[in-house]
Amino acid sequence: MKQNDIYLDHAATTTMAPEARNHFFELLETGVANSSSAHRPGSSAAALLEVARETIASKLGCSPQEIVFCSGGTEANNWVLQRSVTDWNRATGNKQLPHIITASTEHSSVATTAARMKEDGLIEWSEVRVDQLGYIDLVHLKSLFKPTTVLVSVSHGNNEIGTVQDLQKIGTLCRESGIRFHADACQSFCHTEFQIRDLPVDLMTLSGHKIRGPKGVGALFIRKGVEISPLVYGGKQEKGLRPGTTSVELISAFAKAATTWSPKTISDLAGIKSYVVKELRKRFTDVQFNGEVEKVSLCHVVSFTFPRFESKVLHRLLAENGVACSTGAACGTGKSDRSAVLLALGREDRLAHQLRFSFSPTTTTAEIDEALGRLEKIISTLQ
Ligand SMILES: Cc1ncc(COP(=O)(O)O)c(C=O)c1O
């Protein structure tokens, strides 16, 4: 990045925390053996792996045995959807088509997987409605339940608009009907305060690079007693649930990144978010926010729209002026440049576009002021 560039796309990916980066470099320098090897360096690698597992488990509020490391959010989400269906078919003898419910605002790693499985004739797929702020309609959710419903899968914190779902309420409904409940917490892990032991969630997806760890690593929380077969087959790594030589370096740095988050980190980020919302309202009277900005929401994501200007034009001009943000639609599943998430919120087509600013603990109010100043100049030239 150039010196004057301002990076406000931390929800897409963010820089590694210095602690995680230094730890990663140290491991590369000292060298890490294969954690499955039966010799002393192998045992040291296995010990490092177990420390990382304990760290992630304690952050999430579960037992280390409930954490399985994998390559990231996309893999974990695919794993849950694909194998929940295959396992159900095996158990029931392939008699009926399994039914999956996702929210209409899902990340493409869930929405595209479900769409493809439906196209392949593997599932019946329903999308539960959300309200204007992106909260799941619980009455609609319950009305979608069938005897064949195998899985409900929703994002905990929405990556485009920052709305955070009530996992307690959704999970309780699922439990009452004996339906498996999966939450994608790629954006909410470390960015919101929760303990999985308090929540009726069976499976949860985590991603390393969203919490200032490296890319290409993540984890699936599998609650004790929940059975899911592996997505890929091979060796016995991760109790045979995720074969392939374990990247102790990536996993260890992921865990180190998790230790850098505290309640203060979250409240500081929430302060930045409130500042952005306040300044946007002050500087641009016609700005419209998408998703939740008043109550508890993802502390690092703000989505907004200017009704008079196409967001893709503003995005391009911001990029030309050294402000890196997102239109939130890069991973969208829609065919047009409209955001499938905003359309699901009930936005008319004309307004279903957005700018997303997202932050990390390195973001300063000075950077925000500079970015908004550049945005003001851009808008004044367009008027
Ligand atoms: C909500 C959500 N789920 C899943 C993913 C995919 O995670 P990964 O990049 O680790 O595959 C992302 C990342 O964009 C995300 O924001």
Question: What would you say about this model in short?
Answer:
With 383 residues, this protein is α/β, with parallel strands linked by helices. The protein is built from eleven helices and twelve strands. It has a seven-stranded mixed sheet with strand order 2-8-7-6-5-3-4, with helices on both faces. A three-stranded antiparallel sheet has the order 9-10-12.
Describe it for me?
By secondary structure, this protein is of the alpha/beta class. It has 2 domains: 6-16 and 261-382, Aspartate Aminotransferase, domain 1, CATH 3.90.1150; 19-258, Aspartate Aminotransferase, domain 2, CATH 3.40.640.10. It has 11 helices and 12 strands. It has helices at 18-30, 40-60, 73-92, 108-119, 138-144, 167-176, 248-258, 263-283, 311-320, 340-344, 365-382, and strands at 6-7, 67-70, 99-103, 124-128, 149-155, 180-184, 203-207, 218-222, 288-290, 301-305, 323-324, 355-358. It has a 7-stranded mixed β-sheet with strand order 2-8-7-6-5-3-4, sandwiched between helices. Helix 1 runs antiparallel to helix 7 (248-258) and helix 8 packs parallel to helix 11 (365-382). The chain starts with 5 loop residues before the first strand and ends with a helix. Bound molecules: pyridoxal-5'-phosphate. The site of pyridoxal-5'-phosphate has 14 residues, from helix 3.
Structure characteristics:
Aspartate Aminotransferase, domain 1; Aspartate Aminotransferase, domain 2; about 15% strand; about 375 residues; seven-stranded mixed β-sheet; binds pyridoxal-5'-phosphate; alpha/beta; globular
